[in-house]
Amino acid sequence: MTVAKYFDEMSYGPAPESDIEARDWLARHASGFGHFIDGAFVPSVSGKSFDTFEPATGKVLAKLASGGAADVDNAVAAARKAQASWARLPGHARARHLYALARMIQRHARLIAVVEAIDNGKPIRETRDLDVPLAARHFYHHAGWAQIQDTEFADHVPVGVVGQIIPWNFPFLMLAWKVAPALALGNAVILKPAEFTSLTALLFAELASAAGLPPGVLNIVTGEGETGALLVGHEDIDKIAFTGSTEVGRIIRERTAGSGKSLTLELGGKSPFVVFDDADIDGAVEGVVDAIWFNQGQVCCAGSRLLIQEGVADLFHERLKRRMQTLRVGQPLDKCIDMGAIIAPVQLTRIETLVKKGVSEGATLHQAKIDLPKGGSFYPPTLLSGVQPTSIVATEEIFGPVAVSMTFRTPEEAIQLANHTRYGLAASVWSETIGLALNVAAKLAAGVVWVNATNLFDAAVGFGGKRESGFGREGGREGCYEYLKPKAWVGRKARAAMPALSQVKPVAGDFALPSIDRTAKLFIGGKQARPDGNYSRVIASPKGKAIGEVGEGNRKDIRNAVVAAQAASGWSNATAHNRAQILYYIAENLSGRADEFASRITAMTGASAANANAEVDAAISRLFTYAAWADKYEGGIHQPPLRGVALAMPEAIGVVGVICPPEAPLLGFISLVAPLIATGNRVVAVPSEPFPLSATDFYSVLETSDLPAGVVNIVTGSAMELAKILAAHNDVDALWAFGSAELSTTVEKLSSGNLKRTFVDNGKATDWMDRSAAEGALYLRRAVDVKNIWIPYGE
Hints:
Elements: H1 3-9, H2 20-28, E1 35-37, E2 40-42, E3 49-53, E4 60-65, H3 69-88, H4 91-107, H5 109-120, H6 124-147, H7 149-152, E5 156-158, E6 161-165, H8 171-184, E7 188-192, H9 199-210, E8 218-220, H10 225-233, E9 239-243, H11 246-255, E10 262-266, E11 272-275, H12 281-292, E12 305-309, H13 310-324, H14 345-360, E13 364-367, E14 382-385, H15 392-395, E15 402-408, H16 411-418, E16 426-430, H17 434-443, E17 448-451, E18 470-471, H18 476-480, E19 484-486, E20 519-520, E21 522-524, E22 527-529, E23 536-540, E24 546-551, H19 555-567, H20 570-573, H21 576-591, H22 594-605, H23 609-630, E25 636-638, E26 644-652, E27 655-659, H24 667-678, E28 682-686, H25 693-703, E29 712-714, H26 719-728, E30 734-737, H27 741-750, E31 757-760, H28 771-774, H29 777-780, E32 784-792
Parallel strand pairs: 6-7, 6-9, 7-8, 9-10, 11-12, 11-16, 12-15, 14-15, 16-17, 17-32, 20-24, 27-28, 27-30, 28-29, 30-31
Antiparallel strand pairs: 1-2, 3-4, 5-19, 10-18, 13-14, 21-22, 23-24, 25-26, 26-32
Helix pairs in contact: 4-6, 5-6, 5-9, 6-8, 12-13, 21-23, 22-23, 23-24, 26-27
Family: Belongs to the aldehyde dehydrogenase family.
Keywords: Oxidoreductase
Protein name: Aldehyde dehydrogenase family protein
């Protein structure tokens, strides 16, 4: 072909990247890679190994050590030994280590990029221009947090030893996302890379050792799923950070229940890509290319569900199909390709099966008529149009280069369709009307929303999901908190066993006029309600005198309370000023009845009058605290290195269950309920089981304080039994439970159904009078999800 013909056709020839250095590096390890433990490469104790393959050819790339229980034990021991010394280093010293790692990545960027492309199958352009530079950016960014940790996180300390499990779709970038903040903030790490793609993690271990990272601070144990399970179950690990499938995330939630381990999960997604009729159509088409055909669609936040407004749907699909035809699928090291290989034959088979299922359910299939390389695992860019919202391809994560498309008429319908998923990781909104775009972005159930863009990432901007896409954030200030714990909670002791419920002693009657019977009811939807089962329990004083009765709540009562809380969704949209006013009003009305509430505390618990008055005063003060925070706990503006901003907006989680601690019956109740309603949540609260009358008295305060019906619902009864119902309820978005260690274990295990966020104390006692341990930002952060809305601007 002549040069002139190339100019006429504007076609691309192959432009292969040299892999000589990468192949030489692999050849130096032809005998196999060991684990990286305590600063050195060591074989598996068992001697077992497994092969890793090149996705583009199916050929064996390397032999890897297979991690067993002894290997994990050795890695954890090395991390535990190193962590205390690492944490004691001045922040500046850790910052210099992270800076050295960032510089090492930059110096060896091309080698890392080539090894990643060979090992994963993605195009070299993506590893070279995105993955590796962004990985270096994470180490630079978190070197900064290490430098200023003493001032910015003065009331926090490192979590300790962290187990991290990363996926195969972004092996090196995921390593940086997790390792950089963990090390920066004083933790030691055991990293388990994906069995398909462990090579860049092992290369990084070599580079980290050469950069002078102290032994034991970073450990890498390779292996398959069983190795990850050993890491999750290890008793001497303080935190698990996992990125992967929702199914595995659910298992991890169950297996860590009650262990006291901190847990962050970044899981699957089925992200909507919403195009309005005033959008830049050509720009949106290019957005689809980046949303679903980037990395062969093997992206957890891929914009795989196209929602196109009816007026432009035909035009959009026509241009999209034309653009699909120009995409090039080829060998990963060819710098002129758009898509490389699927990670493995098993994933290719899954993609093919799901596409066939979608067609059988009525979708129209369009695939680009392009040549695919011979051998290896390749799949063409694919569009399924006319998809129904309930189709399997619209509800299940395909994790391949397959976009599914449906239409909508109004913004309200678009929001409804976008949120019609159990996931909530990311979304894209395309419109030239910024007011429309931001209005829709605010209403989408997603942790990240891109406006007129997609798949933008930066170390300064938090990333993470809602619903079954997991919980926790990675990146930025919000991501740092995932690797820290409050100083005020360090060294908390196990809660002392509560005395057995006082039994009512028989009392002989007399001829005096008896008091009028008063049984406290439940409080649901702003009204007092009798318990469904019509059972009640007597509350006795420590001396056995009956001082009241409360209803025995059951499953139906919880169901009614959750329905009432859902109906009160307007509270989440109320102005922060309005929420503050009502909290002040609640405090005012409680203040007017302070003596009454103090007397009730004394009667129930036997506390001295002074202590009871102190508890009521602290409760009033705490209401003032959260009234003050209601219009001040605000978001921030991130400025990533692009022309644009990312708005970090704290959002109410939704409906939150609260199991109040047995002690401090008024202050414990308010300490948990107040931060939740201050930030716009609606609450179903179970008061102190032995001392519930403070909470049932309190609903009369709520009735006179202009709190909308359904914002706070109170169901009395067994803490454990009601917690089980709330934890398993799919319409409860989070559950806070303070009580026994058994209660915490039960709540965390049962919450795995819809992967609701949990906040438990693992049976540790909190001093509710201690403001540093019992109020403020520690609780507000757990009362919200942070949504990052990216808004590019300019040319």
